[in-house]
Amino acid sequence: METQLIRQENGIDYVLLTNNRLEEALRIQASTMADENIAIGLNMFEESGAPEEMQLIFREVVKDGVSIIALDSDTNEMAGIPLKDGEEDAFESFVEKNIKHRSCIELINFLNNVESKVNIFEKYNVDAMMEMFYLGTDTKYRGRGIGKILTECTLKLGKMLQNGEIKKVSMVTDETIVLEAAIPKVVIAVYTSNYSIRIGEKLNGEFLVNVFYEDFIINGKKMSERIGSDHKRVALVAYKL
After folding, report:
1. How many distinct structural domains can be found in the chain?
2. pTM greater than 0.85 (yes/no)
3. pLDDT tens for residues 148-196?
4. Which residues contact 129 (CB under 8 A, 6 or more apart)?
5. 179-201 b/e with 16+ CB inside 10 Å = b?
6. In which element (H, E) is residue 6 found?
7. Which helix (H) or strand (E) holds 2?
8. For residue 76, what are the domain limits?
9. What is the CATH number of the domain that holds 63?
């Protein structure tokens, strides 16, 4: 399967995720999910089977064929992933039919609650957008700015799709690509930590919504009590392409 290069920098290749790399990407997702504040705040890791069920969500997310991965240029080892969300109605239907664990459902509802506070299509007068659904870096590659570059590559990918410079990748055997003809005009992300929020600030994203972990109570306990005092808020950020 052809590798489509987006960018190469500091010994890292940023390329489109292909089906033969999906399991490796899911391994990184699973290992980095332990640091995800929303999952921590929802007590996901105390609910048996919930972290594993998240894998179903990520398998569905990548079907739009525009997920980027970071590979070590020398070893070809995967260093990081930002996964994208596909068609909203189809995704919601998938969650309703397939996701049963409380914390997984609450995580999706939490994100939907943040995103629904702004109608992105009306605000930016666009008919298609791309969402950075998950951003994760393997622990041994952290501190090298990979998260920021993955975000920059996502924005570049949007421009390349607009200009016809790159093709979406089928992630399933029947060659289906969710919303294959849709060309995004804006990229959004729900940032859940100080680290990702700083990426949004450095890249001049437009901060549309801020919500605070202190304000959400899950199973009788504030999310902030589980997360700790370092990370206080979640931000919906948009980048106009």
Report:
1. 1
2. yes
3. 999 999 999 999 999 999 989 888 766 678 778 889 999 999 999 999 9
4. 120, 121, 184, 185, 186, 187, 188
5. beebbbbbbbbbbbbeebbebbe
6. strand 5-9
7. none
8. 4-240
9. 3.40.630.30
